[in-house]
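Researcher: Going back to the complex we discussed earlier. I've cleaned up the inputs and rechecked each line, so this should be the final set. Can you rerun the prediction on the complete assembly and write out the structure?
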Amino acid sequence: MRKFVAENSRRVLARSKYLAAVSQRPTASYSHSPCSQKSPPHYSPVSLLRFLSTITTPADRSSTETMASDYSSTPVQIDTINPKVLECEYAVRGEIVTLAQKLQEELKNDPGSHPFDEILYCNIGNPQSLGQQPITFFREVLALCDHPAILDKAETQGLFSADSIERAFQILDQIPGRATGAYSHSQGIKGLRDTIAAGIEARDGFPADPNDIFLTDGASPAVHMMMQLLIRSKKDGILCPIPQYPLYSASIALHGGTLVPYYLDEATGWGMEISELKSQLETARSKGIDVRALVVINPGNPTGQVLAEDNQRQIVDFCKKEGLVLLADEVYQENVYVPDKKFHSFKKVARSLGYGEKDISLVSFQSVSKGYYGECGKRGGYMEITGFSPEIREQIYKVASVNLCSNISGQILASLVMNPPKVGDESYESYSAEKDGILSSLERRAKKLEEAFNSLEGVTCNRAEGAMYLFPRIHLPKKAVEAAGKANTAPDAFYARRLLNATGIVVVPGSGFGQVPGTWHFRCTILPQEDRIPAIISRLAEFHKGFMDEFRSTG
Amino acid sequence: MRKFVAENSRRVLARSKYLAAVSQRPTASYSHSPCSQKSPPHYSPVSLLRFLSTITTPADRSSTETMASDYSSTPVQIDTINPKVLECEYAVRGEIVTLAQKLQEELKNDPGSHPFDEILYCNIGNPQSLGQQPITFFREVLALCDHPAILDKAETQGLFSADSIERAFQILDQIPGRATGAYSHSQGIKGLRDTIAAGIEARDGFPADPNDIFLTDGASPAVHMMMQLLIRSKKDGILCPIPQYPLYSASIALHGGTLVPYYLDEATGWGMEISELKSQLETARSKGIDVRALVVINPGNPTGQVLAEDNQRQIVDFCKKEGLVLLADEVYQENVYVPDKKFHSFKKVARSLGYGEKDISLVSFQSVSKGYYGECGKRGGYMEITGFSPEIREQIYKVASVNLCSNISGQILASLVMNPPKVGDESYESYSAEKDGILSSLERRAKKLEEAFNSLEGVTCNRAEGAMYLFPRIHLPKKAVEAAGKANTAPDAFYARRLLNATGIVVVPGSGFGQVPGTWHFRCTILPQEDRIPAIISRLAEFHKGFMDEFRSTG
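Model: Rerun complete. Updated structure for the full complex:
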């Protein structure tokens, strides 16, 4: 019994320390600062991480605390786990999503229990969960590779396109023993890497080497691998955009490094200023941080901007000059919606500037989850690593080997998206129609939602030039900020929670991505099906008006 | 130029330090100690890890060193990467496999260049790479779920079994929006977890909760997640069997913990003695190591033993008493080949002893890569976690969320292997025939190879009661050990390399798994197709005789 009491109090103590730490926000975050300001108030990487973490502090701490006490005789307690795990946060599936799942369950059990009849998940870039249909050709090839026994059957001709059958045969020929159920080479099946390399060459106009490709289960494990390679301790820093996709902050936290933030400039359409990069790099270095790499997300997540080629050149030169690895998140490379912008890979930009393999270290991440295909559940992706010595590549290969290989369906799909049907192939026309239909619809949805946000009182929203998100800024009334403070939550999380409870729409508070302190945003995907956009917009507008009325009146 | 010289010398210096570290083997490893000895010489976890690492030191260091110098202006050098990555080793895809891939390439380009015409990969449990055919029903369901558009077509009835079509419909109904291309819940699709939990219940006779299941891309990521949760620093230890599957040493190294070895007793069929566990635990504790968990691999890898239920009870009691998490690698649960042994899950054993959810912390790992299905390339698997408080589970959920979800095909397959066709289903007969054919053939192959190894001079081999491996001990002549020393390689690696060069057969040296110092082994899978076993055995026997003759003569 004595042991129980001692253990329990130790745990409660640690827990309150933890809560104190996560609720300690930089005071600057409540002061109002215009988004156009060029030098946003710096706050330390540690406080930034703490700040990011506030948003996902589970709502039902007190209930889990009570329940936890029953587990006092089990060996693992919250104060004895890896603190890096505690520190890591991932708002895209954080508190708001947990609440949404709860509401969904309630709706299922009691359909009239909320003022809406379904939950609309706009928190995550997950197109097929909102009704987007997969590209037929891709799925035909995957099905045939899963069950090659039917390839020679007569009925198969009636069910599958001729070029999907041909492609399946080609792919099986590239797999040793045609064994789609075997572990592959740790980097992925060589023949598929050849196809991907050819696809990169066709895209960029510069050579690509299949030995530079590491196929992975989506892009996330690839990002983790690079963080694992680069981060030795808290003294190692990774420059990340703010706002950023929280995979980066999570991965840096899990690997024990320091996130060095650089701010995108909302006033210039989330512009990426070299002066800002430089100033943050110098600040970090002056604190003894060894900055190893620069993360660039292009097209941007959560911001949706597409970098201008000239800006990319400056970034490449900056990395070269400062000795930084350029980690280029290019998973939205096929999601560009405006005629005045075009995707350029950083490798193409670097090669165009004359930087060769041994001049600059560059990693490009690509995924089958995004683009027009949106095959998130297939967990396919790759990284192309260039500018690393053979001995470093050997280390990367070794880490890849520990997990044996990525899933073969994902590998096949990655080769398909980098080598889709061509003019003359039987599937080309239907494939093109499906692809163009999805991309042009996404463009229209982005435009409509952007206009809708901009029409709301106190909301400004940059255009979604690319990716799958809008990141509107909400100028919250003082009274709303105070109410959030009383509820011990970030003001944008307060807004998002109210939005969810009133409309069933799930968005992610800007504090989950980071933002200039004192500004508030949320990320909303452009993915709900097009015919539902008008209803969503009116639900949003009605909620927002009510919210502003409630807090304006006494503000 | 000055910078180049300085950087280069710094790198060469670090490299030589590294080489010095990895070549520093415990001297005990060369002394001969009988395998029956009950208390093997202890060597420290650090020296063990160093020792494990010797085996995969790449052969062509000097050439990569020369090449590396060209990369002197890139930011990442071997002495500036995460030292945990350097420390991690994974022999299953180490030096010998790299050599095998080289020989395979040479054979392709010049078919007569070696005294064999193909490479036989017995290094890894990868059944389909050696010709094992997938289970038809599983692949039918996967193909239909990949391309649900054909489910209603008339031709589909002619190509697929009725129950595979029905199962595909059932599974699709369990997936929100029938979207197999969407990210799922971070733990995996709820309906599939229900199926898996029901399968566990049917297996064990004790309840299983779908909320305890985390679906993962094979078992490896699940093991990493648990190591990540438990390991805070080098002061945290994980008890691992020696010999062990090197995923564990690799994962512990990558997460910066300490491997606390316990030795399996070769003389008693790789018995697991509680006295040995206790002694190693106490030794580690006396050195200030906080031992967090015990890894048990049952059936054993690389050793192939199946634990007796009584032994499992002792292990459960030991974990309970000592406050250790029991990490149970149960991926070979369907691979048992002897009538006197049966697989019992540790959860079943714990529940039979009366330990409930809040009494003991237990994680069971399962994979679709093993069993009779051997679907390695699908990367499906799960862990069932019991005995963790809600607040700890919340942390595990968060880490799972950072990678969004495991691949859906792998999730579906995991549900299928835990709920295969039943008596009365259209596919039942063919399914049973395929399953029994594979398992009985594996049993015969295990037996034949075991007998063959035992017939070799100086080789002793425990029976493969389960799993997919034999781990014969080779009593190497003194002269062979000396020759290995001169070649700066471990004696069993020396043997494995000679075996490969002479026969094309790829095995993994015992030093990659750990072994009692002074004993030498190799791991060989039982997976080559049955009709090829006699030829393999005679190649092996011929090589072994020649090897012994060569080194005996002057030994």
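Model: Worth noting: Chain A has 20 helices and 14 strands.
Researcher: Good, that matches what I expected from the previous run.
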